[in-house]
Amino acid sequence: MIKLYYVTDTCALASHIALEDAAADYSTVRLSFAVEDQRKPEYLAINPKGRVPALVTDRGVVTETPAILAYIAQSFPKAGLAPLDDPFQFAQVQAFNSYLCATLHVAHSHRMRGNRWADDPSAIEAMQRKVPASVTACYELIEQKMLGQPWVMGETYTICDPYLFTMTQWLEQDGVDPSRFPGVIDHRRRMSERSQVRKAIALELA
Amino acid sequence: MIKLYYVTDTCALASHIALEDAAADYSTVRLSFAVEDQRKPEYLAINPKGRVPALVTDRGVVTETPAILAYIAQSFPKAGLAPLDDPFQFAQVQAFNSYLCATLHVAHSHRMRGNRWADDPSAIEAMQRKVPASVTACYELIEQKMLGQPWVMGETYTICDPYLFTMTQWLEQDGVDPSRFPGVIDHRRRMSERSQVRKAIALELA
Hints:
The structure is a homodimer of 206-residue chains.
Chain A: E1 2-6, H1 12-21, E2 26-30, H2 41-44, E3 54-57, E4 60-63, H3 65-75, H4 87-112, H5 121-146, H6 160-168, H7 182-192, H8 195-205
Parallel strand pairs in A: 1-2
Antiparallel strand pairs in A: 1-3, 3-4
Helix pairs in contact in A: 1-3, 1-6, 1-8, 4-5, 4-6, 6-7
């Protein structure tokens, strides 16, 4: 059975929602950053990166949210979570998720994780000051150029949707003005009404 | 016909090599950061992110290196560039490429692109000072936990190989001691001997 290692209020929520969307048979293991579970030897044996999420399968471990999401979509094809038979459309899904992973999430991470990229406390504060601008720039691109209706890819719900929804949980904390992004906020509201999303969040907060 | 927009000495080389590996019928368009081609309206119409690479296909544009590489692998299945029929193995390929995109490339980018994440010149210098340590940490993980023999995924060459090769072009400039990573350096040498790699590099430098 699939087992998802996660920390509450992290990007792991995207994979958790996708498992619900896929009606997968899975269990979860909650870790805590507060006690540094992610750096303990037993977890590093699962994911040497010391990050979440990690998806443990019968064949081994999958890490990295874009990889996990595509894995779920391919492993549960009946759920229709990605255009698996169309390389171009699949590439659009992957490009969106890659942008969230490598640009939006990275911009966001400069608010809480600046020590990854500098040691000087004043530099870390300078990074924090730029987060509202850099994250806003990402949402401008998403709102104007990338976001379909009613779902990210248009008429069909895909693995892009739980990932965007997860990122938008941090939008206000990152200093982004939600009134500037009505499409993104509407997507967040629409997602929050889905039973699969409610269930994943309830499980993470229980 | 496929058209690759690239800038020399960027991550676009990975896609260029993969097109050669796939024996694809393609053409290239070279842009220059020096004259800010990537911010000109004609390029922003192709890729609103203002980044390279962008792959223009008959059906539209694909961006983001992990998405482009998987697209090439799926579009030219006879080239055998990814385990397309095995979701778990495909996820391993994707996880590796996602790590290069969102962790290694991001760590590297703090040397030349610090202004993405801070405005203060002293903060940008502080970021540059940490690049040798943060990039070295990535290569430690790659060397010890992620790298197969003779190729990234083991016996079979995949789209992970041109991507890692491309990243390793910057290893010394990033202040990483190559003698600490014999496996990575051996992979780079092995890649540099491939005719497809030589051809892609020659085309980019011509």
